[in-house]
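Q: What would this chain look like folded?
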Amino acid sequence: MNELTIRVLGLDDVRMRLGRLSPEATKVMRMAINDTAQQARKQLNDETRQRYVVKKTKFNKSLVLKRATNTSLTATLTSKGKPLPLSYFEIRKNGKRKAGQGHQLKSTSLTPIRKEENKSFTGRLSNGHRGLFYRSSEKRYPILQVYGSSVPSMIGGKNVYGRLEPVINSNLQDNLQRHIDLVLRRM
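A: My prediction, written as structure tokens:
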């Protein structure tokens, strides 16, 4: 399970910048943290989808945002989940003599999926789930499904979160300044 925690240190600095409106400091920080957390969630989604061919709905369901409150100035983005079936990425039907194809990185092309001598094939289960499957033996059953990466493993790498960490920090400072300016303008 991956967690991204957005926390602001320097409540006294914000109170000093607000002057006599210092009671508004916790409210300003809470709003800035929550705005940054929402932006971080969208940026993580976009950055992951630039690298992986994952469908957006499956990705969004596994990123849970816990917002900051006035008592706890911490917002948490939690990502948990099992490996996603390869059908949540990109697959192509099998032909008469070809195995089913699939891939999960945008930098690769569709490749035939094989397990030992058994070719993979696309199919639909009785509950409506469409996937890429293969047989574990020459018999008709059991049928096994092909899986790709999980959302935490896609986010946790240097290619996604590592590239976004400085952007998230600068967004936090920008949001903090924007909310301070809004409070000062209301005076």
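The mean pLDDT is 76.
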